[in-house]
Amino acid sequence: MTSKNFEDLIQEPLILQAIQDLGFTTPSDIQQQAIPEVLKGKDLRASAQTGTGKTAAFMLPSLCQLLKKSPTRGPKILVLVPTRELAMQVVEETAKLSRHLCHITSVFICGGIPYHIQNRKLSRNFDILIATPGRLIECLEEKRIDLSNLEMFILDEADRMLDMGFIEPVEYIASMTPKSRQTLMFSATYDKKVLRLANSLLTNPTEIIVKKKAASYDLIEQHIRKTNNLEQKYKLLDEILSDPNIEQAIIFSSTQRQTEEIADKLCYGGLKAAALHGGMNQQQRTRTMKKLRNGDIKVIVATDVMARGIDIPEVSHVINFDLPKTLDDYVHRIGRTGRAGAKGKAFSFASSRDYQMLGEVERFIDDPSDSSPKPQNRSRGRSRSLQSRRRSR
């Protein structure tokens, strides 16, 4: 039977108060299915897309479990995530859900955080550790963190973790935790690599699969634009970004270098734009995200990995300057818009080299009728075009 509210799942008044403060009313599908299993102490293998409430699905029952535990040295819960941006998102969500639990503390570590600040945090008692693999392994090897009292090990975005080459670091970190731990693995997809990792880490897990719902994308108007060369892509980009109804936009590119090139062209043309990729240091990335959230940047140009930490409700347009390698990445990308009941638009540029991926996207959209529009000729006097803005500078 489907639960209709959070009171059916959780009996902790202070946690329910935080949920009410946040305005949450009905648990999402992943929350309804995962929370009872986690509270039973079972290992969990869950598949659900980004934006379905996965963080609350594992953090709410984790907080409930913590309330029943006695204080110990070292963390009781470890949340391992692939990127710093995603870690910060989990940190923010955890802080909101635990806002009335003053005695429960969490620590966040990742590359880019100054060591003196990190070590000061680690010197105190804390219950929850949110970390990226590289920095956590450094701390384990320096014996600054002891995982011997860990009771719950949570892997978030496991597929992305493996795509980034973190399989050995994850296995090493797992080997430093007690075998009696409860393990939760959340992943958008479960290919052979992810399943092998799951089989090695989980014990008799409960499997939860929240299938993609076509209705989830009803608010996103999806378009495909066929292109012949890079110049044509820029002309289409100019045309789309000239729309005065754009609030904020995310442009996805396949390489770090190209994110910089696109962002530079847009800035030169007079738009408030910035790149976001893994080659930037933490201070640069944090500053860029802050500007985006404050509305100081209108267009962000990002790689897939960096976009995992972007959760901005005002994003009205998503533009795939390059088509992604998989349909799951396409779904994740367009899911950055059309959030919180707002409408959004997604544009994808495709060349002849993208024929295989193009077919998958067309089948997903189920309406390829506008897949071949050509760039329109625009008036020379149009002030909003990139070309005319460049000439005026």
TrEMBL record:
It comes from the Bacteria. Residues 363-393 are annotated as: Disordered. Residues 4-32 form the DEAD-box RNA helicase Q domain. PROSITE patterns: DEAD_ATP_HELICASE, HELICASE_ATP_BIND_1, HELICASE_CTER, Q_MOTIF. GO terms for molecular function: hydrolase activity; RNA helicase activity. The keyword Nucleotide-binding applies. Keywords: ATP-binding, Helicase, Hydrolase, Nucleotide-binding. Residues 229-380 form the Helicase C-terminal domain. Residues 35-208 form the Helicase ATP-binding domain. A motif (Q motif) lies at residues 4-32. Signal peptide: none annotated. Residues 377-393 have a biased composition (Basic residues). Its EC number is 3.6.4.13. Belongs to the DEAD box helicase family. PANTHER family: ATP-DEPENDENT RNA HELICASE DEAD BOX FAMILY, ATP-DEPENDENT RNA HELICASE RHLE-RELATED. This is ATP-dependent RNA helicase RhlE.
